[in-house]
Amino acid sequence: MFWPDVIALKEFYASALGKLTFLAIRRRIRRFWPNVKGDNILGLGFTTPYLQAMLEESPSVFACMPAAQGVIHWPGQVKNLSLLSDEAELPFGDNSIHRALVVHALENSEHVRPMLSELWRILSPAGRLLVIVPNRRGIWARSPRSPFAYGQPFTSWQLRQLLAEHSFTPLRSESALFFPPSERRYVLRSARFWEIIGGQFFSVFGGVLLMEAEKQIYAPSAQKARVRARRSYISVAQPASIKNV
Length: 245
Prior knowledge:
Layout: H1 6-14, H2 16-32, E1 40-45, H3 48-51, E2 60-66, E3 82-85, E4 97-103, H4 112-122, E5 123-134, H5 156-165, E6 168-176, H6 185-201, E7 208-215, H7 222-229
Parallel strand pairs: 1-2, 1-4, 2-3, 4-5
Antiparallel strand pairs: 5-7, 6-7
C-alpha cells in the first residue's frame, strides 16, 4: 500500500477544500462522540485536525502517526502530543484508551489485521473505535485531489465484516463528503448544501464511511500475552512523558 505523506496531508487540510472536508467529517464525529470529557483518546493515522477540538475535554489526547506516513509536531507551539509508531505495535498499555479514532490509516496499511488487534488490545472494556475510510462507491476514492484516494476503499458491508472479525461490535455508521473534491468556487460555496442533501437521500454515495464499534471482551490467548510481556508501553496517565520521536 502507498501511504500519503504527512506534509501533503497537512497542506491539504490547510487548503479551502481541506477545510470544508474537515468541517463535514468533524460534524459527523461529534454526532458519534458529543461528549468525550474525561476520556483517554488516541488518534491513529493523520487525525490531528479532528483531535484539536477534543484537547479541552480530555485529560489525555495522543496523535499516533504510522512510520510509513511520517510525523509532525502537534499541537502548535505547546507540549508535543504526537508520536511515530508502527501501526501494528502501538506503544500503549492494555485497556488504557477509552476512544480510538482512525483516519487515513486503515485503507493504507499492509498490516490491517495486526493493527486492529492492537487497537482492540489498548481499548478499555466497552471502549469505542471510530473508523473513517474511503467509500468504494464515492468519487473521493478515485480523485487525484482527494487524500482518500490512496489504498483500499471499503463498502459499508466490508468494513462491518472486518471489524466484527476482530472482536469489535459495529454499532452505527454514517457517510460524509457528498460534494466533489474540487477547488472550483461554486463547489466550495455549495458544499454545505450537498452535505445536507446527500446525508438525507444519497448516503450510499458519500466520499467516506464512518463506523463506530465497541470492543468485545474475550479471553486473550497465551501467545498474545507473551508478546505483550516483551513490550514497553506509554502510560497515558503521564502525557508529559511523550516526546518527539
